[in-house]
Amino acid sequence: KNSLAGIEFSLLNNTALNDNRPGGNRNGWQINLEWQFPVLLGLVTAQLSHTQLQDADGYSEFLENGIDRWLHRSYLLVQYRQPLYQDLALLVNLYQQHQSSNIELFESRDRTVEIGLSLPF
């Protein structure tokens, strides 16, 4: 039940394994921030992440005249876990994600709320 915080920064290089992958190689960066702290009878864990990727080649001649695609993706995940009995725990997850791109097909937003029980086995 300790409070923790962390930060991670990565440079990304995603090499295409075959020559016909749309967009070819991808390069970019990612940053992740994490927190963990006790609340009430449980523990809150939060993760905030942002990624930026750029294709080396045009994604497709049929989308935006074959321009090189870029993606920016951010998400926030907040989880509350409260022990109930031995290994059984109440679990509440809140998740929000947003992805933007210069090609509309790759833009997305979503939100999820999950409430359940966790029992490892």
Order of helices and strands: EEEEEE
Extract low-pLDDT stretches.
none
Distance between the termini: 22 Å
Overall structural class, as computed from helix and strand content, comes to mainly beta
> What form results from the Cα inertia axes?
elongated
Work out the helicity level.
under 10%
The main pleated sheet reads as: 6 strands, antiparallel
The Rg value, from CA coordinates, equals: 19 Å
Helical segment tally?
A: 0
- Name the strands of the widest sheet in spatial order: 1-2-3-4-5-6
Instruction: Provide mean pLDDT, rounded.
Output: 94
Number of strands: 6
Strand proportion: over 45%
Quick recap:
By secondary structure, the protein is mainly β.
Task: Explain this structure.
- By secondary structure, the protein is mostly beta strands.
- It is 0% helix and 70% strand.
- It contains no helices and six strands.
- It has a six-stranded antiparallel β-sheet, with no helix packed on it.
- Strand 2 (26-39) and strand 3 form a beta hairpin.
- The two termini are 22 Å apart.
